[in-house]
Amino acid sequence: MQANPSRPLKRNARLLAHLTWWDMVAQYFGSWVGLMWNVLLPGLVIVVYLLVFEFSPKFAFGGWNTVGGYGINLVSALLPWLMFQEGVSRAACSFVDQRHLLTQIPVPSGLFPLANVGASVVRHGIALIILATVLLLSGISTGWLWLGLLLIFPILLMITVGCALVAACMTTVHRDVAPTVSAAMLPLFFTTPVIYPPHIVPEALRVVMDLNPLSPIVVAYRDLLVTGVVPQFGGLLWSAAVGAVILTIGLVLLRRIGPELAERI
Amino acid sequence: MSTDPARVVVRRLWKRYRLQKEEGGRLRRRKTTEDHWALRGIDFTLPAGGALGVIGSNGSGKSTLLQILAGVLPPTSGTAETSGRVVAVLNPTAGFHPDLSGLENIRMLATLHGFDRNALAEKIPTIIEFSGLESYIDQPLRTYSAGMMIRLGVSTAMHLDPDVLIVDEVLSAGDLSFQRQAVAKARQLRDQGTAIIVSTHALGDLATLCDRLILLDRGEVGSEGSADQVVASYLQRVDADGGKIQPGAPVVGGARPTTPDGRLRITSITINGQKDPSCVETASGQPLELEIAWQAEEPVDDAVFRFQLFRNDGLFAHGQNTVRHGIEIGRLEGSGVTRLRYERLGLLGGDYYVAVGIWPDEYRSLTTGEPYDHRPSAAILRIGADRIAGAGVAGFPCEWTIERDPSAVDIPSAEEDLA
Question: A-contacting residues of B 1-60, CB under 8 Å?
Fold first, then answer.
């Protein structure tokens, strides 16, 4: 069944790359701009937020000794959030959407939600490049701290992949899961300090923000890209721990549900 | 063939589906599960170069069996082992992505089957040519018709060097020329050592391709053997229970909607002495008598009486009318009976819709929907199967003779035999 059974990992990695590519191609297939939408859309998000908030004097980011204006601070934290939101929302429907393929070819089923996450990772990368350009042009540089992203990104990826697998598997058990995931994104967004700095949150509500494993990550992105300080490790450890738990649950679900997928979808 | 390595080995294969039933309203739902055994202990082996046909009525477990063999469903118990590359076409969409082009979809399917870029580059022109879809190959799949999708799916599957090729039903949905082309290619693959498993209702094609058939009946192997034996037993079964037109079922084809004029009405139809029957059973070669009782609400000039038979798949099998026989009816007043008698019914086994109509003239009976009166499915004529009468639609009296000349036998010499 496999072309190269001795190296399934290599084969699966190759398939994942292909599926990610097709996911990105299919999304905008036939449109005039086509694949370029994957560059244009993140670029547009960044430019619009910057124009609206950066040049509007009414918004100051938390009114404390921040580097950069509201727009820059917002966008730097928005990018990791968008990767999470897009990857998980799209993965929630991935098994159901790929029903024709999954009832036809024995492909390792986990590859489909992973491909959705893969596409959001690629767009995240493109968005980071655009943001870096904007930062350089506006004279904001945190120097070597940028490289800190190499440590933060894997935690974000772990949480995203874990949630994507859980959402995809649970949707095959109960169809209400996919819309619930979409609905949960908005409240989750507001408990993540993307549009506000963490220190303005009232003491009573702070526990909600602190429990959210994405909070330390978006703050760390902002610290590393704009503010230029070393992120706090405590929060990131919490994120990594929660991410590991979610990823484990996701993998267990996939192992249990994967073989029966064709009769569930 | 028996010395070839087995490509497919199925041992005591059972498959259970858990059907979930939900009771109650949106809130307070109670879920109960009910077990349904789709396969009950299937056993068979298929060698390289063997071709196996799976036939059976809907719900007999054909698709489940093929899905398990394709590796997308796990068996509940027992084993289904395949060796080599298994390529399956299980549903008409063949796993294609609707938003990708035909070409991208070929690439995707082939990649998922383990082909790399170079191997694929050689295959693609052949696949496109075989599918006959050259001018559509860059269009997204959602613009394809069902037939085009089947062409693409079957063409791709057949050119991916399968060791085991599994085709479920879909073949019979393609057009006839592609079906023949596909069956020819399947035969070529089989001769090169591919094991082929097909399930289809197109029994004619199956018989030529498969050296062995199994008939599934409610998840069990009902009969197994050569194509001829199993097809005969299948048709017997179809005749015994399923596959019949139920009285009142809509006509499959051949009938245009009509709006009766009302001046001349059909009051009753009698077939073989049965008045207004829902179903008339008869046999090939028997006489058929039809009586149309009519009532004229006002005098009508020059009507045409028409009788037609449509097979249950919509095939127009026979038609007859009074104009063909040069009968000038003249004025019809009051009421009366028009009779039609066949000495011998030449149609073979099957269910046929009886359509009876009275029309103003022959031309309008073909072109308009305005009869005096029309009954598109007045009754069902159920003609019993008769192997001796032949196969197809029509049967004619015939006789076989074989002439032999024993003295002309060419006995090969011993040397030739050794060589």
Answer: 17
Range with top average pLDDT, A85-89, B23-27, B325-329, B405-409:
A85-89
Judging contacts by C-beta atoms under 8 Å, the chain A residues touching residue B97 are: 22, 26, 101
Give SS3 for A165: helix
Closest CB to A105: pick one of B74, B93, B112.
Answer: B112
Subunit contact A104:B73, Cβ cutoff 8 A: no
Mean pLDDT on A18-30: 79
B390: left (phi over 0), alpha (psi -120 to 50) or beta: left
Contact A106 B70 (CB under 8 A): yes
| B71–A contact, CB cutoff 8 A | yes
Q: Hey, is the C-beta of B100 within 8 angstroms of any chain A C-beta?
A: yes
Phi, psi of B356 (to 5 degrees): -125, 135
Domain span including residue A42? 8-264
Q: Is CATH 3.40.50.300 correct for B6-240? A: yes
> Distances from the Cα of A231 to the Cαs of A40, A82, A145, A146, in angstroms?
30, 20, 10, 12
Find which of A1, A2, A14, A95 to mutate to test the B interface (most B CBs within 10 Å of its CB).
Answer: A1
For CATH 2.70.50.60, the residue range(s) in chain B are 264-389
**Of A14, A27, A101, which has the smallest distance from its Cβ to B95's Cβ?**
A101
In-domain check, residue A3: no
Distance CA B66, CA B168 (A): 7
pLDDT higher than 90, residue B311: no
Query: Which chain B residue lies closest to A112 (C-alpha atoms)?
Result: B112
A66 within a domain of the structure (yes/no): yes
Residue B365: predicted pLDDT = 64
Q: What CATH fold (topology level) applies to the domain B264-389? A: Coagulation Factor XIII; Chain A, domain 1 (2.70.50)
A206 contacts A130 by C-beta, under 8 angstroms = no
Q: What would the pLDDT profile of A81-105 be if each residue is shown by its tens digit?
A: 999 999 999 999 988 888 888 888 8
Looking at the predicted complex, does its ipTM rise above 0.85? Answer: no
Tokens of B72: 């997308």
